[in-house]
Amino acid sequence: MILTVTLNTALDITYRVRSLRPHASHRVSEVVERPGGKGVNVARVLAALGHEVTLTGFAGGPTGEVLREALASTPGPVVDALLPVSGATRRTIAVVDELTGDTTQLNEPGPQITPAEWGTFLDRYDALVPGASAVALCGSLPPGVPVGAYANLVRTARSAGVPVLLDTSGEPLRRGVAARPDIIKPNADELAELTGSHEPLRATQDARRRGAGAVVASLGAQGLLALTPEGRWRAVPPAPEYGNPTGAGDSAVAGLLSGLLDQLPWPDRLIRAVALSAATVRSPAAGDFDRAAYEKLLAQVSVTTAI
Amino acid sequence: MILTVTLNTALDITYRVRSLRPHASHRVSEVVERPGGKGVNVARVLAALGHEVTLTGFAGGPTGEVLREALASTPGPVVDALLPVSGATRRTIAVVDELTGDTTQLNEPGPQITPAEWGTFLDRYDALVPGASAVALCGSLPPGVPVGAYANLVRTARSAGVPVLLDTSGEPLRRGVAARPDIIKPNADELAELTGSHEPLRATQDARRRGAGAVVASLGAQGLLALTPEGRWRAVPPAPEYGNPTGAGDSAVAGLLSGLLDQLPWPDRLIRAVALSAATVRSPAAGDFDRAAYEKLLAQVSVTTAI
């Protein structure tokens, strides 16, 4: 079982409007709701690849109920181990402009987590980790969760000998890296914020020095740059993808974990991650991917040694 | 009891962001949720004025539950006679830009109402109308409700001898007016759409000819222009109000009904409507008004014969 942790789950709402103009009133022509949060997307992709997945984190309020009901009807073996909390799960609103195709994002901060709720989560996590073959820690922290939360969760997984991947940003990433996670998967902005360097290879090296076992930087159309104990590679899709990039990074995380569990060598894990990521851009929603495109892309991703 | 009808109730959500920019990602710093829809705002103001109010229309899904729970905790005697429906009550999102103070509005269309649900509503309405001293029909129609719905509801009220006010727009207004409601309260845009004329006095005369007993046009800072069987007046606040105009028109509707029930002559009804409307602009939320400002404004609104 792969354990994905999403402390700040979300009800992802997508609105279509003809043209978004500040200060105007807009009629929303289409409303789509989906369970969201990075770890939820990762879980959905892993389940679609045939892995057993358990999802933990927090869910609360009417939005949390909607999220859990939708998760229950998701195809694939995703076990819901979310903890109920008194606050309400946040909403994210993606407003798609039909004229330009642009998306404008509005993200609620998330529920206030009480110290008692955080304590209950730590107990739940401690109980789940020994049964996991890998752990993914994904996304932002809701208010009330200590900023060193991920460092704590990384240490628990390492003590249990379970490989742990961390995908977050800002101070939670900085603290988490110092606890020596097996893999981190920052994007270019997150990597620059962590290291102060906008040069990906230099920044990736710096991130490894800070404690990460492997650093896999997701660089958009330039694919992945990976510095690992086995070597360093660039994995690049055959052509830039056009579509909805939301969730592409989450699919890369799912690919890395899937390849780890299948005991693939690093270059093949990267191929899987890049192919999934590109196939997700072709799909309209985060956490979904175009399976035909994925299978075709597996043969088309190029991996070269990074120098 | 005053009966207010809100077929397309809403969960009104207000987001504060630092500065809304299309195609960017925004962290929402504050989230406020309130029961909404024009007839809900009217009911809240009437209740605050001491009138007994019954609220009917549709509510469904998780958003409908949140709306009904919030209504139950609203101070004042608002009786919830909303009908449950299979679809979910719509959300409206008002995004307040902290830099400019501007508001950008995103309105979901509302739940699909089935023919059976509409039939059940008509039975409920027929049962409620004879016990009402006035009826207010407010706002847009959710999908599935026939475009002639308000005409139908106006006729039922008139047959029962209960005064009926209609506050809607577009084709539902055009059809509703032909059924001869006692009062309509269009704003300048709605009046122009109904009559084809942008000249308020001419348009108001035309709207009366189409069937409305009285036409009270709300003209923003220029106050109200009323053409009634008793005479024609302009009622103007002492100075333009600065604040949040959302719900000002709904408060004017509440003022007109309140004055009707208190058997005030038309000029005094208009004073009440303008004072409530202006006091609502000073209040941060639709359906609320600044009571001290309201009482002061009652002595300051000027009413003159419209020529």
UniProtKB/TrEMBL annotation, chains A, B:
<keyword id="KW-0547">Nucleotide-binding</keyword>
<protein>
    <submittedName>
        <fullName>1-phosphofructokinase family hexose kinase</fullName>
    </submittedName>
</protein>
<dbReference type="Pfam" id="PF00294">
    <property type="entry name" value="PfkB"/>
</dbReference>
<feature type="domain" description="Carbohydrate kinase PfkB">
    <location>
        <begin position="12"/>
        <end position="287"/>
    </location>
</feature>
<dbReference type="InterPro" id="IPR017583">
    <property type="entry name" value="Tagatose/fructose_Pkinase"/>
</dbReference>
<dbReference type="InterPro" id="IPR002173">
    <property type="entry name" value="Carboh/pur_kinase_PfkB_CS"/>
</dbReference>
<comment type="similarity">
    <text>Belongs to the carbohydrate kinase PfkB family.</text>
</comment>
<dbReference type="InterPro" id="IPR029056">
    <property type="entry name" value="Ribokinase-like"/>
</dbReference>
<keyword id="KW-0418">Kinase</keyword>
<dbReference type="InterPro" id="IPR011611">
    <property type="entry name" value="PfkB_dom"/>
</dbReference>
<keyword id="KW-0808">Transferase</keyword>
<keyword id="KW-0067">ATP-binding</keyword>
